[in-house]
Design a protein that fits this description.
It contains seven helices and four strands, in the order E-E-E-E-H-H-H-H-H-H-H. The chain has 247 residues and is mainly alpha-helical. Helix 1 crosses helix 3. It has a two-stranded antiparallel sheet. A two-stranded antiparallel sheet has the order 2-3.
Length: 247
């Protein structure tokens, strides 16, 4: 019984081939769905603010709920000083959320299932919060790697561990998002590929079980898509808190 290659959905396809010297800067399916995500986010913001009223409509309610959710996320995890960076955290949260949801549409493309995309976002977060910490505290920022109340004899062991754990943040942040999205989409395709063949072999009855399983997995993926955007945003807030308050 032949099944569709579950990795086929992650292949990068060039839409507009383009090279600058030896660098490939082609416009791809990944680029296209990133632009679609950005367009949808801008559309949401524009539609919600164009005719803002005291009694919010559907679009305004969605935008206000998103705004309040991210603002609360920042204040609870990064403090009031973190609200200064609300535009960035809101943008990255919405970008991942919309991108994850778009990837659940049949024949679309999930750009958050590619490590190069998730690592680029994680690297921006890492460099950004590190720059904020250094700009705010100067060399005192290095005390972030010295745990409070620890005997000096243990610092030779704990400081390298703290430094290592700090510098692997962009890797863990990016791998978590990419791995969850890739694994979920692979499982969906694998189970979906059995629905038609089993349905034909068993006069429709045998294909019902994998279909029900796939529906359940799809609903789970909807939850995972939202959860992964939330996790990325909350970890960004926690890293920002460390940079702002050094604890």
């Amino acid at each position: 019984m032949a099944t569709e290659n579950p990795l086929h959905q992650f292949e990068i396809a060039r839409i507009v081939p383009l090279k600058i010297g030896n660098v490939d800067v082609s416009f791809t399916n990944s680029s296209l769905f990133m632009l679609i995500s950005v367009f949808l986010i801008i559309a949401l913001v524009v539609l919600s603010t164009r005719k803002a009223s005291l009694v919010p409509g559907r679009w305004q309610s969605m935008a206000e709920l998103s705004y309040e959710f991210v603002a609360k996320l920042i204040t609870e995890n990064a403090g009031q000083d973190g609200l200064k960076y609300f535009p960035f955290i809101f943008s990255i949260f919405m970008f991942i959320l919309v991108g994850n949801f778009i990837g659940l549409v049949p024949y679309s493309f999930t750009f958050t299932s590619h490590i190069v995309v998730t690592f680029a976002m994680a690297a921006v977060v890492f460099v950004g919060v590190t720059a904020i910490g250094i700009a705010r505290h100067g060399f005192h920022f290095l005390t972030l790697f010295v745990p409070h109340g620890v005997p000096k004899a243990l610092l030779l062991l704990l400081v390298p561990i703290e430094v290592l754990s700090y510098f692997i943040r962009p890797f863990t942040l990016s791998i978590r998002l990419f791995a969850n999205m890739m694994a979920g989409h692979m499982i969906l395709v694998i189970f979906a590929s059995f629905v038609v063949p089993l349905g034909i072999a068993g006069a429709g009855i045998a294909g019902l079980l994998p279909l029900l399983v796939d529906v359940g997995l799809f609903l789970l993926e909807v939850l995972v898509a939202a959860l992964q955007a939330y996790v990325f945003a909350i970890l960004t807030c926690l890293y920002l808190r460390d940079a702002l308050y050094l604890h």
